[in-house]
Design goal:
CATH topology: Anthranilate synthase
Distance between the termini: 32 Å
Oligomer: single chain
Radius of gyration: 20 Å
CATH architecture: 4-Layer Sandwich
Structural class: alpha+beta
CATH superfamily: Anthranilate synthase
Strand order of the largest sheet: 5-2-1-7-8-17-18-6-14
Number of domains: 1
Length: about 350
């Protein structure tokens, strides 16, 4: 089963398999799922293998209006000292490696589990939808990958005919009172590195240009965003661009191979689909939309696993990086707050 809602859309799309085998048919729309590890195979679902329907968002809201009159619930990520110390130690190892010239930047993450005795999945989807209208929101039950859901603001790449769009989304700041603080030199440096790496990666496949960076609003959070667009060269396709971009420096680091090796040797867990990409491709209508799988969580063994991370440069402060992940966890934490077992 798959349900998703595109940015700013009002129709939720549901794909139901009813337990039947899901063939990768040559026709119709396809849903692609790629994990963080680029060596792992991409999973492709063909829409023509499903029964597909659409539900208006207002109908879902009306259904839950009387059952859950108070949808908002305050939540903040709990702090465990041993988890904090471990993550800060990981950040310090990365800073040391950067200062020794082993790597330029690396994006490091962590995962935290929350036990939930029972989940109302439709209500969870409604809460997920309301996290941020500008995101791609989804809930997926996959026979091999398990149960995942998320609300990601980051477009990996989209295309129509031979034209494509992408973005660099790196740098984060939080609302303080009624205003946002000024962007720091570290955040601009991190952002421009991501822009340069994306342009360099696309160069063999496409003609690309960039716009000026601007603020990307996501609730009480802002990111630095630079839009990148252009045309795909023959004989390449949007799938070639997606494969070449993944994983982007905004979720991995650079040099890419060195960053991947550092993450594999030091992070201490398997990211799975977190910081992979997913989305739709319709070869007949010549369009695609793929999103980086951020602000996501996995459900397994009565637990939600929430994933958060951040970019590390030579100027990173381990404690500040910890605080940033605590803040980032709030987005998905608010979604599951009504279901978390209170202990």
């Amino acid at each position: 089963m798959l349900c998703f809602l595109k940015p700013n859309a009002q129709e939720i799309e549901f794909w139901f398999s009813h337990g039947q085998a899901l063939e990768n048919l040559s026709t119709g729309p396809k849903f692609y799922v790629q994990g963080f590890n680029p060596q792992e195979p991409v999973h492709v679902w063909s829409g023509d293998s499903f029964d597909c329907t659409q539900v208006n968002l207002k109908d879902l809201e009306q259904y839950f209006a009387h059952q859950h009159p108070s949808a908002d619930q305050s939540w903040s990520a709990p702090t465990q000292d041993h988890v904090r110390l471990a993550y800060e130690g990981l950040i310090q190892r990365a800073v040391d490696a950067i200062q020794r010239g082993i790597i330029s930047k690396v994006v490091l993450s962590r995962v935290q589990g929350f036990h939930v005795p029972e989940v109302d999945w439709l209500y969870l989807m409604l809460r997920l939808i309301h996290t941020d209208q500008n995101t791609f929101r989804y809930l997926m039950v996959h026979p091999k990958l398990g149960i995942w859901c998320g609300a990601t603001p980051e477009l990996l790449i989209s295309s129509e005919e031979n034209n494509f769009s992408s973005m660099a989304l790196a740098g984060t700041r939080w609302l303080e009172g009624e205003e946002f603080p000024e962007w720091t030199e570290k955040e601009f440096e991190e952002h421009y590195w991501v822009v340069r790496e994306i342009l360099g990666t696309l160069k063999p496949f496409a003609d690309a240009s960039q716009n000026e960076p601007h603020d990307h609003q996501a609730g009480s959070i802002q990111h630095l965003r630079t839009d990148i667009s252009g045309s795909i060269r023959t004989p390449y396709s949007v799938l070639d661009l997606a494969r070449s971009l993944h994983p982007t420096p905004a979720v991995c680091g650079f040099p890419k191979k060195t960053a991947l090796n550092f993450i594999g040797a030091n992070e201490g867990y398997n990211r799975g689909l977190y910081t992979g990409y997913l989305g739709l491709f319709n070869p007949e209508q010549h369009w695609a939309e793929f999103y980086v799988n951020l602000r996501c969580m996995e459900f397994k063994d009565d637990r939600f696993k929430l994933f958060v991370g951040g970019g590390v440069t030579r100027d990173s402060n381990p404690n500040k990086e910890w605080i940033e992940t605590q803040r980032k966890m709030t987005t998905m934490g608010q979604v599951i707050a009504p279901f978390i077992e209170q202990r």
